[in-house]
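ok so for the tutorial part 2 we go from a plain amino acid sequence to predicted structure tokens. step 1 is just haveing the sequence, like this:
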Amino acid sequence: MHQPIDDHFLLRYRQLLDAEDAAFDEVEHACEEGNRSQFDAEMVVWQDSVARKLSFLTSVGIEIPQRGATA
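step 2 — the prediction. this is what the tokens look like for a chain of 71 residues:
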């Protein structure tokens, strides 16, 4: 790991987790309402939030194993 786990790391990671959680809530609501166009739009936002979280983890040297990934 390139960067120690400190208050800055924890704060940034918590922000990313909260953003992912909020985005997923919107995906869930759109799904429950049966609103396909809103669901599709919210999926993009959620996927972006997941990508930002994974990018942050990678940037600090945390490797994310790709278990069961197929090419």
